[in-house]
């Protein structure tokens, strides 16, 4: 694009160039066009609507002003958006033209209509969303990872998470966008194969799969090695794991030992006590859930502090065979001060 401005950003001052500038701005449409482009970046069609001139005519005027370096154009799809060139109005003749054009546009109400024209840009969008649109898709959105990635910087501690009993890795789609690194452990090779396929399809590149038991020394060593000076994971998750544990209290203690001592969190999702023996047999459950006080006592005995328990809405419980049960979430924090007390208490029993 030709730019007649020199290093100073001002238009040339020689007589021939000044004469060309006066001639360029002599058409009354052009000062009005410059004024509108100075007020808002507008499309050629929008300028045509505002100035009540044919679009080919506006395009010709805009081309002349662009060639003179007074307008800048930006392509956006099929649109050409125009705005006043930075520094163009430092020339007194151009500044006078912009003032004259502004006064003319204000006098006939054209400036006031800019807002209406801008609002009309999303008319098609408004119409689209006003219709019924796509049918409601149950469950979390496929773009959940993008939302969680946006949320992640708001979390103070998100270096490492451990997913105990990861199964097919469903929880990894939540943890991976939130944490810098995730260790997912399961003792079943078949389950880890499903998790590995999920990781591949969903591009969860920061997840490390481990086959083994949640209370195995080598798992704790791996977590400690990954955690470094923190001494453990920021958060340890055990989703519907505890009712499969031969010794739930021991399992709770093992989860606690994977969390960092300075306030690492342990999150246990499991059932409240129920009487569905058939489900237990179907899912190979060892325990028919836990009443909240029993669950709380296990957490406190393990050395967790600030323990909270809440029931979850049934709508969050998926569509599996256990969806009719009451789900509860326990959250507690690892505290070095209580760990020694808890261990001494266990020795005296």
TrEMBL record:
InterPro entries: ArsR-like_HTH, HTH_ArsR_DNA-bd_dom, Methyltransf_12, SAM-dependent_MTases_sf, WH-like_DNA-bd_sf, WH_DNA-bd_sf
Superkingdom: Bacteria
Pfam families registered for this protein in UniProt: HTH_5, Methyltransf_12
Keywords assigned by UniProt, alphabetized: Methyltransferase, Transferase
Domain HTH arsR-type: from-to ranges: 11-104
Record-level Gene Ontology MF annotations: DNA-binding transcription factor activity; methyltransferase activity
Gene Ontology annotations of biological process type: methylation
Gene3D superfamilies per record: Vaccinia Virus protein VP39 (3.40.50.150), Winged helix-like DNA-binding domain superfamily/Winged helix DNA-binding domain (1.10.10.10)
Name under which the protein is recorded: Methyltransferase domain-containing protein
Origin organism lineage: Bacteria, Pseudomonadati, Myxococcota, Polyangia, Polyangiales
């Amino acid at each position: 694009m030709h730019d007649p401005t020199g290093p100073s950003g001002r238009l040339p001052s020689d007589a021939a160039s000044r004469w060309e500038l006066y001639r360029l701005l002599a058409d009354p449409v052009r000062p009005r066009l410059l004024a509108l482009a100075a007020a808002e970046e507008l499309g050629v069609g929008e300028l045509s609507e505002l100035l009540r001139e044919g679009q080919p005519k506006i395009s010709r005027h805009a081309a002349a002003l662009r060639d003179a370096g007074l307008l800048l154009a930006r392509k956006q799809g099929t649109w050409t958006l125009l705005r006043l060139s930075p520094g163009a109005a430092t020339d007194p003749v151009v500044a006078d033209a912009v003032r004259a054009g502004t006064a003319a546009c204000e006098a006939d109400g054209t400036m006031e209509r800019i807002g209406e024209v801008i609002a009309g840009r999303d008319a098609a969008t408004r119409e689209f969303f006003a219709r019924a649109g796509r049918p409601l898709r149950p469950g979390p959105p496929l773009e959940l990872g993008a939302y969680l990635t946006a949320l992640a910087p708001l979390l103070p501690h998100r270096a490492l998470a451990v997913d105990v009993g990861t199964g097919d890795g469903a929880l990894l789609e939540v943890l991976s966008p939130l944490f810098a690194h995730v260790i997912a452990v399961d003792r079943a090779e078949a389950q880890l194969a499903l998790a590995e396929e999920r990781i591949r399809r969903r591009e969860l590149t920061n997840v490390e799969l481990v086959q083994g038991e949640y209370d195995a020394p080598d798992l704790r060593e791996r977590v400690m090695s990954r955690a470094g000076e923190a001494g453990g994971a920021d958060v340890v998750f055990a989703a519907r794991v505890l009712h499969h544990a031969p010794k739930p209290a021991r399992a709770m203690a093992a989860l606690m030992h994977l969390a960092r001592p300075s306030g690492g969190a342990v999150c246990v999702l499991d059932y409240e006590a129920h009487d569905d023996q058939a489900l237990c047999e179907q899912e190979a459950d060892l325990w028919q859930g836990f009443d909240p006080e029993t669950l709380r006592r296990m957490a406190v005995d393990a050395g967790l502090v600030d323990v909270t328990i809440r029931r979850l809405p049934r709508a969050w419980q998926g569509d599996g065979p256990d969806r009719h049960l009451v789900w509860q979430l326990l959250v507690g924090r690892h505290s070095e001060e209580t760990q020694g007390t808890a261990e001494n208490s266990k020795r005296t029993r």
